Amino acid sequence: MRQYKTYLFDFDYTLVDSSNGIVMCFRHVLDKHGYKNVDDRAIKRTIGMTLDDAFALLTGVSGREVLVSYRKEYVAKADVCMSDNTILFSEVTNVLQALKQQGSKIGVISTKYRYRIMEFVNRHFPAGFFDIVVGGEDVSKAKPSPEGVWYAMKQLNSDTRDCLYVGDCVIDAQTAQAAALDFVGVLHGTTTREELLAYPHIAIIDDLGTIRVK
């Protein structure tokens, strides 16, 4: 795998395992409103989607006002418990440090709110460790729209030839495809190798330690 000048990463199930926190927050809302038949795996399969889309899928609700109210209840719960129930994958710190040492820029593009990402990042990394973090509140259209990727590339003065996007799910693969970026899929989450192989990719890897750095 060649060296890139810029590496853009998804957050959940790519850099971190936030599944415990996410399940707790969804369960808090779903149980409250009587959706007790939704299992944890179904919840985990929505990681990477916007909260509104995830709740619509899990509950069958389509009304905008109801979905917004569910999202607000989720966010209030996440304010209390998300960061404490999120952990870095074991290889991530070493990989990111190596990328920075080789002179590459690194960033995060996520549907998760930027302030939530930064709450976690500030606990585990020095200030300014990431060159950019783009969250759900920073874009008008969520992934797989390339808006967030293009915004990050503009801020970092990067171009498509020298930028790699790394993510764990189909939404990430679609985002990279829409942005015309090379894509590496990582199998940290619930998306299978076969699902990712259906999209253009440089590699599908078991963990980020497979990203070779010089």
TrEMBL record:
GO biological process, one term: DNA repair
Domain of life: Bacteria
Presence of keyword Membrane: no
SUPFAM superfamilies the UniProt entry points to: HAD-like
GO cellular component: cytosol
Enzyme Commission number(s) of this protein: 3.1.3.18
Pathway assignment: Organic acid metabolism; glycolate biosynthesis; glycolate from 2-phosphoglycolate: step 1/1
UniProt GO MF annotations: phosphoglycolate phosphatase activity
Lyase among keywords: no
Catalytic activity reported: 2-phosphoglycolate + H2O = glycolate + phosphate
InterPro entries: HAD-like_hydrolase_sf, HAD-like_sf, HAD-SF_hydro_IA, HAD_2, HAD_sf, PGP-like_dom2
Keywords, comma-separated and alphabetical: Hydrolase
Protein family: Belongs to the HAD-like hydrolase superfamily. CbbY/CbbZ/Gph/YieH family.
NCBIfam families per UniProt: HAD-SF-IA-v1 (TIGR01549)
Protein name per its UniProtKB record: phosphoglycolate phosphatase
